[in-house]
Amino acid sequence: MSKLITPIFLILLSVGLFVFFTNPTYLRSKELKETSASYNQVLDKSKELIALRESLLTTYNNFSASDVERLKKMLPDHVDNVRLIIEIDAIALQYGMTVKDASVAVQENTTQGDDTESIFEIQQDDKQKMQLSFSVVAPYNSFISFLKDLEKNLRIVDIESVSFTASEKDLYEYEIVITTYWLNPTL
């Protein structure tokens, strides 16, 4: 009987060790391995992002200072409505016009992110919009030349609407609404 109790005791001890120690430890090590794999993926992604940042920084540093200034004028990193109005007024002055009744409306961009997206997959809009409305008084040919020069200006603008009021002379009052953009510095 003593010979039978020892093997049964050892079998029960080994089953107990497996159920209460070995199996939980194995499952925990499996979880840690999966967590480690996900951390390694994030680390690999961060290395890719660092390499991309370095590549873009090298490309940016290869631009001449004048090209960088032209890019900043085309798509600035802040809203500068006063400078834009001055630029438009300078273009208008070439044709004997003055900008009047200028008003600005900043349009907020809202981005909605899904909570299940990873930090690397969130897409955000990196530009902001501003609408500028103003009026000018000019003959038709001068107004067309003004619009062509506005189109050739380095600052990106979209003409949203043009309306006009006729008068008895060859002068028309044009109401213009444009949209311009700037980069969102918080991204």
UniProtKB/TrEMBL annotation:
Q: Where does the secretion signal sit in this chain?
A: none
Against Gene3D superfamilies, the record matches this protein to: 3.30.70.60
Q: One biological process GO term for this chain?
A: type IV pilus assembly
Pfam families (UniProt xref): PilO (PF04350)
Q: What is this protein called?
A: Pilus assembly protein PilO
Upper lineage is: Bacteria, Candidatus Campbelliibacteriota
